[in-house]
Amino acid sequence: MKKYFFIEDISPLYEDVQSAEIFRDSKFFVDCIPKFFAEEIINKYENEKSKNNFDLKKFVGENFILPAETSTGYESASKPITQHLEDLWEVLKREPVEIGGTLIPLPHSYIVPGGRFREIYYWDSYFTMLGLQVSKHVDIIQNMVDNFAYLINEIGFIPNGNRTYYLGRSQPPFFSLMVNILAEEKGEKIFLQYRSALEKEYNFWMDGSEKLNEKENAFRRVVKLPDGNILNRFWDDNATPRPEAFTEDIHIAKKSKNNSAVTYTHIRAAAESGWDFSSRWFADGHNMETIYTTDLIPVDLNCLMLNLETILLKIYSLVADELLIQSFQIKIINRKKAIQDYCWDEKNGFYFDYNHINKSICNAYTLAATYPLFFNISESVQAEKVGAVIKEKFLYNGGLITTINNSGQQWDAPNGWAPLQWMTYKGLQNYALTELANQIKTNSTTNCEKVYNETGKMMEKYNVMDTQTNAGGGEYPNQDGFGWTNGVYLKMKSIV
To answer: Which pLDDT tens digit goes with each residue over 224-238?
Structure first.
């Protein structure tokens, strides 16, 4: 017997429901919980669907438990914003219960983002933890780190979220930063406690690197570059439409000039990036049917991998393992050099993704360029140049836009997102670019306060170019809640 329920277990009902678009949100049905065994539901469906009076939506209602309404239903503009956020931790907290359906049960309590996002999300959780740390909820941070370690040990990696339809991909590898937050609270012994989980995460992202050669230079998430260095890319092991965006993906694949399977791989890889979706991943810079995510070496991903290697080096230093110390010192030197060689553009004074297929640097300006500053990879003169571009092209009254391109996708202008406000703010602070950093902090937090005073809610994303207009774009409406916005806001306000 399979341990988990997969939405594909109820094919062709699953595809028929998604294709019929009987629910406004494609994620809604895949979050339903079957009332009966999959085989029983499929047998009933095959017997009943040909009847003249067959009602597909009614059939779903009879055989599945539908998810609760997506809104948190929690608003409190009458409270000070910091009190609202403290109270929200309990609203967004989920206990470890066996709910069923596509949800993968976790052993400890955790914080969900809010809205349609009813499960834990990987990279969201780091930014949520920043706020939990300010609120002194170390117990919840501990629980969430333990949940991610559980997923690594149970599944082999941390999936996008704890749903079976996310098991083809991960998200940006922030686990080492989460462990670091816990170590700040509990001491260096924490690094040793999570050594095995960190090593397994590293091995997941580096899987196949030993097989690469000049002829076969890419496999899953690793790419061997002309100079012999290995960098990472985003990937997904499934070349099919995402269950939670089934009709949307089919629509894009039909418009694309690529083979459908290739298009689905690029779409899913972009979902692994967390930037789903952005013109950053589009070959023409505007249209999603030109998506080419796996062709790119993302600068932010490789900075995260460098940090993971640095944390592992710290662990090996703590246990005095000389062979691993030497190995990871070399890995860190090589990756740092490769990031600078392939992603830095001296002419424009900015970091960009690198296209390993046509062997050229990309020209899409994105806030991924601030990751080398966050992780102290840049030289001071590089940081100053990046800061100048940020000030000129990205900074607006409501904070920072994600890219300078307005494509209608949610990870593009005019939208700003809490995680990137934080990464940029902290990165600039690392290089004493304090005035610009503080301006970003002021603009971003003021925008959050304005929207909160008007709505009683914290949002997933914000329109930072026109603070009188709500954020939009993408596959679904703007969500409220909202985990990482709450976390980043509290963290920024705690810094004097």
So the answer is: 999 999 999 999 999
